[in-house]
Amino acid sequence: MTVDRLVAALGTLRHTAPPALDDELFTGWLTAPSRLGEVFVAFTSNGVQFVRSTASLDGDPAAFAQAYRMRFARPLRAADRAPAGLLPVLGGRPGAPPALDLRGLSEFERDVLAATRTIPVGETRPYGWVAREGGSPRAVRAVASVLARNPVPLLVPCHRVVRADGGVGRYLFGTERKEALLRGEHANLDDVEALARRGLHYLGAGATGVVCFPTCHRARRIAPADRTGFATVVAATAAGYRPCPDCRPGVVA
DNA sequence: CCCGTGACACTCC
DNA sequence: TGGAGTGCCACGG
Description:
The chain folds into 3 domains: about 5-90, Double Stranded RNA Binding Domain (2-Layer Sandwich); about 105-185, Winged helix-like DNA-binding domain superfamily/Winged helix DNA-binding domain (Arc Repressor Mutant, subunit A, Orthogonal Bundle), CATH 1.10.10; about 190-245, no CATH class. The chain has 10 helices and 10 strands. It has helices at about 5-10, 20-25, 60-70, 85-90, 105-115, 125-135, 140-150, 175-185, 190-195, 235-240, and strands spanning about 25-30, 40-45, 45-55, 75-80, 125, 160, 200-205, 210, 225-230, 240-245. Strand 2 and strand 3 form a beta hairpin. Helix 6 packs across helix 7 (about 140-150). The protein starts with a helix and ends in a 10-residue tail after the last strand.
């Protein structure tokens, strides 16, 4: 018996089919345009569950369904309407983000994704930052493992998590895509790279005494003459700077 | 349960 | 300055 017939049969058990039944048995899917090109998106009534570029799956919906089923053990059914908020965020436009359905993930995974989701557009944070913000400061490698399997890229902006040494790091769809996404949202990667070549990874503003990650919106407003680069937050605090309350570059000891 | 595996990150020269 | 070595933690087989 096909799943479609099963649902139909279950529906006849009541005078009117319960509206939530489909939703409990199926996950909807559709394709949508995004900054990664066309993507497959799977979603339940709780929120978006899985996003993958069609290019990475040879544009084959069956491959998407299989990948989905491997992880979530549920069948997919074509949907005709996108969840609220999905399309603007996929396209890099402003707007309230869609709800996410992260059931089935471990607490650690959800913590990592939640911390990652707070990174503003055009800014980056190192893996160690996500580990700390997520509540597991030494789980740096584990953070990387979680992001490598991010079920909802773009919606959880894992492309904004970069290496502490100034490198952009790897990405689910390739390093080039990661860099292109960051440049597309005007992250100042060239500044980061120039500083890293000198062994510097933080910027202090003399006027305010605040030290930031170089991509922080505050760091980018520091007048060149007022900028001081630091290799570590410890070095910056030793020089009298305090960590930026917005980008939170390290423990406030 | 032990062991291998990583989108990482320090520490040394 | 950068490459190798070592430490790390969560997960899966």
